[in-house]
Automatic annotation (TrEMBL), chain B:
It comes from the Eukaryota. It comes from Acanthochromis polyacanthus. The keyword Transmembrane helix does not apply. One of its GO terms (cellular component) is cytosol. GO terms for molecular function: phosphatidic acid transfer activity. GO terms for biological process: phospholipid translocation. This is TP53 regulated inhibitor of apoptosis 1. It catalyses: a 1,2-diacyl-sn-glycero-3-phosphate(in) = a 1,2-diacyl-sn-glycero-3-phosphate(out). Keywords: Disulfide bond. It holds the Pfam family UPF0203. InterPro entries: MDM35_apoptosis. PROSITE patterns: CHCH (PS51808). PANTHER family: TP53-REGULATED INHIBITOR OF APOPTOSIS 1.
Length: 215, 82
């Protein structure tokens, strides 16, 4: 069996995009986006302010590896419980955007996850911030790429829920309200404002984006 | 203006955590009070960053963590804007 051919057959890249409209003002808040509960260590390994006043940072994160039993059995020698992840980020205070790009350094044969997040002012809903989150998940284990990718995608979705809960928690701490009420109320406010805006605008936005739409 | 750190994190180098937190504190203050407001006056954290980096880069080398070798935002270059 040609190893080159088999690895390209099984290297399927799954690409998912999700949009979420979160009601907070970018000028009032800059949140640490890596709010996963399984991160054990976090280090800045590079940082630079560019000539055009953008902040470039590289962070090294270490998480525990939470593999399900069936996946562990494919690594009889055992595998390192630590997953190392790099997160590169660009904060642009002038254009009011935050972009993060994250990928894992090890365990890439099993599963490689790359993620890009872009926080920007929302064009459709003024005074809110839009998060666009994309993930590319692939596995090069021949014959098992599909179940691994399904697992990866399922975990991506559940992590997204957790990350959003983390974000809600951070927002509620800032504004002194309970998490659920904050996000629900602000989502309601945002959609009411959007309705009003749509009535007065000559043409509605082309892309329909519902609040809290998860893929 | 507030910057939030949800958790007090540790460094990958066990001996570096105190230096890391000292740097983080300096950075967070500068970030919220100067950087986000467009104030370009000097960075007050260079010394504390240097101390922290000396420690953590050594730990990274000792643990054989393959941090170098990928360009900043490197893999992102292959990904189209969607």
């Amino acid at each position: 069996m040609d190893s080159c051919l088999s690895s390209s057959e099984s290297m399927l890249k799954h690409y998912k995009t999700s949009y979420l409209t979160v009601s907070f003002c970018l000028t009032q808040l800059c949140v640490c986006v890596s709010t996963s509960t399984h991160v054990l260590t976090e280090d800045v390994v590079y940082r630079e302010v560019t000539a055009d006043n953008r902040l470039f940072s590289r962070r090294l994160l270490m998480k525990t590896n939470r593999l399900p039993r069936w996946a562990e059995s494919f690594f009889p020698g055992g595998m390192s419980r630590s997953v190392y992840i790099i997160e590169d980020s660009i904060v642009d205070p002038v254009n009011r955007s935050l972009t993060t790009y994250t990928w894992n350094l090890n365990h890439t044969t099993l599963m490689s996850v790359e993620e890009r997040c872009v926080f920007k002012d929302s064009a459709e809903q003024p005074a809110t911030t839009q998060l666009k989150r994309e993930a590319w998940i692939s596995s090069s284990i021949y014959g098992f790429s599909k179940p691994i990718q399904e697992f990866g995608l399922a975990r991506f979705k559940s992590n997204q829920v957790k990350a959003m809960k983390g974000l809600e928690y951070a927002l509620s701490n800032l504004q002194g309200e309970t998490p659920q009420r904050l996000l629900r109320d602000t989502v309601k406010d945002a959609s009411e404002k959007a309705k009003e805006a749509a009535k007065t605008l000559a043409s509605a936005a082309a892309v329909p984006q519902k609040p809290q739409q998860y893929v | 203006m507030v910057t939030i750190s949800l958790l007090q994190m540790n460094s990958v180098g066990e001996a570096c955590t105190d230096l890391k937190r000292e740097y983080d504190q300096c950075f967070n203050r500068w970030f919220a009070e100067k950087f986000l407001k467009g104030d370009r006056s000097g960075d007050p954290c260079t010394e504390t960053f240097r101390r922290y980096q000396r420690c953590v880069q050594k730990a990274i080398k000792e643990k054989d963590i393959p941090v170098d070798g990928v360009e900043f935002m490197g893999p992102n270059k292959d990904k189209p804007e969607s």
